[in-house]
Write a structure and sequence with these properties.
With about 220 residues, the protein is of the alpha/beta class. It is built from 8 helices and 12 strands. The protein is globular.
Length: about 220
């Protein structure tokens, strides 16, 4: 979740049981959703958006054109234009494709979509001022590095110590952080193979494991 200074909130992805995560975080409203890609663990909580979309009108979803088309096909009952039946769990949503590198205002925030390799598919990461959120990234292109210059706070995926065909390893994520020049980096998409305390003890200065409920402040400009 990314919150603008005016209080608007942008949710990144809708994983399974996202409603429970929002309840635990005491978040009752969402103003927009950004999708990184269409894999099940990032999309299959989409029906839970009903709780944050019905009272405030249609909720806007954004992502790559390919991801949005995929989501519309798989969840066609949401986007077919038919009115929701009484007591339906159907959320009220509109979906929009985003162009790589083109700045857009979403939920009170200036957002820059950035494309990354995720093995057999491509994913979007998002930059908000001096903050960037990147997950399910395998490699970072020269174009993406250019778009990330000036990022000071970075959330980036890091799976294992060894290389993986679809995700950055912990050493690769650290190397990417150094190249970007982030002063603070939080590693996400970690496995239970590595304990939080162990990672804290051995990661370099400025790099730390993320955890549920962690909060960071950033400059929106």
């Amino acid at each position: 979740m990314v919150e603008a200074s005016d209080g608007q909130r942008v949710l990144i992805d809708t994983p399974p049981e996202v409603r429970l995560q929002l309840v635990a975080a005491k978040i009752g409203t969402v103003d927009a959703v950004l999708y990184t890609h269409e894999h099940a663990d990032h999309v299959h909580g989409i029906d839970d958006l009903r709780a944050v979309s019905v009272s405030n009108g249609p909720l806007r979803l954004f992502g790559s054109p390919e991801a949005i088309d995929n989501i519309k096909r798989r969840f066609h009952y949401i986007f077919d234009g038919s009115p929701p039946p009484v007591r339906s769990s159907k959320p009220e949503l509109t979906a929009h494709g985003l162009a790589v590198g083109k700045r857009i205002s979403v939920g009170g925030l200036d957002v820059v979509p950035i494309e990354f390799d995720h093995g057999r598919t491509m994913v979007y990461g998002y930059r908000f001022g001096n903050f960037a959120y990147l997950t399910d990234v395998k490699s970072i292109s020269a174009v993406a590095y250019d778009l990330l210059q000036g990022v000071e706070i970075l959330v980036i995926n890091a799976l294992f110590e060894k290389a993986h065909p679809a995700h950055l390893s912990i050493p690769e994520a650290i190397e990417a952080s150094e190249r970007i020049g982030a002063r603070r980096t939080l590693l996400t998409h970690l496995t239970h193979r590595y304990s939080h305390a162990d990672l804290c003890a051995r990661l370099p200065a400025g790099v730390e494991p993320a955890y549920d409920g962690v909060r960071v402040e950033f400059d929106e400009g």
